[in-house]
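### Sample
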Amino acid sequence: MHFHVITLFPKAFDSYLGESILKRAIEDKKIKVTFYNPRDFVENKWKRVDRPPYGGGPGLVIEALPVIKAIEKALKRTKKAKIIWLSPNKKQFTNEYAHKAAKLKHLVIVCGRYEGIDARVKKVFKMEEVSVGPYVLTGGELPAMVIMDTVSRQVPGVLGNIDSLEERRVASSDAYTRPEVFKYKNKSYKVPKILLSGHRAKIEEWKKKGR
């Protein structure tokens, strides 16, 4: 899986991609991430890509052409890629969506900022508007990380054991480990007895109830 991320702030991804499962997936070449900064496609010496919106209103809008050129460069690496345009109020991103996306080899994710990106970009390329939730964030970088994480988990070999996918097994939202009992402020906290019973059928039933 090759993620192509269009963003003004590629360094925002450094910490998350540099830790744990995604870091290992990149090192093992299970996934690849390439960034394309629209600032690299403008000729003014200030690398400015934002302008006031037509029709008035607060904030600034990212120009269309730098974003178009960034997407164009990403598409030069592949003729077959799904392009995702992040939006706070469009199609909801789900595990099912991630599962289907993981079957692709290339995913282009367009991250907005400020008051958004000039909407004419959507007329140039065929893309799908996707939301990670009914709320507004400062930029598309966090939603892009959510999508990359969720899709990567579906890529064979990323988790090591595919049964680690919670959605593929019976799993309670609550989990417990050793010690069996611990005390905190003179109160004992115990693992539910059913998990210590060894009765697999009853444990699976308990997990179903806790989902």
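The chain has a mean pLDDT of 89. This sample (tRNA (guanine-N(1)-)-methyltransferase) is used throughout the tutorial notebook.
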